[in-house]
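Pilot study result, target chain (193 residues):
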Amino acid sequence: MRRLAVFLASSNGHDPAYAALAASVGAELARQGIGLVYGGGRRGLMGVMADSALKAGGEVIGVMPRIMVEREWAHEGVTELLMCDSMHERKALMAERADAFVALPGGLGTLEEIFEVWSWRQLGFHAKPIGFLDAGGFWTPLLGALRGIADSGFLPAATLDDLAIAPDLPGLLEALRERLRSIPEPAHGENLR
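Predicted structure:
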């Protein structure tokens, strides 16, 4: 895995453990030589993770709509800052640059981002794995709700079972790598990776 797209909050949340988690993810990705692709923010968990990865010598690619850059929300110290015109284009650029996607603690933006790339996978627009870092059980209530949706027949169980879920980053990275190993090579003209 060359690069990982991480979706997470632009705020810190109430528990300092969230910032500690974001810092540890940034440092560990850098230590393993995995480039970080994220929303480009300098505040909240986004900024903590980016700063930690940069401090550890990692590659950090931020992707942000121009209007947000103009509002001075962008992290100016990233390795590369890609500007775009819309939130949809932001996700498309992140998807283009990453080999897999992970959600860390976050709110509506994080949910919207991870669900969109997950739906793209289900529809066959890409074959890149999707994961939730369930540290401290943060995502457990959501994952339970998704299981209920699957049990009601509105989400194929195989789609839910396809998620990589782990309580710690080493376990999650291994689950993502396992899924990457099982991705078939695309047929001529297809773009599943």
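One observation from the pilot: The radius of gyration is 16 Å. A full batch analysis is planned for the follow-on phase.
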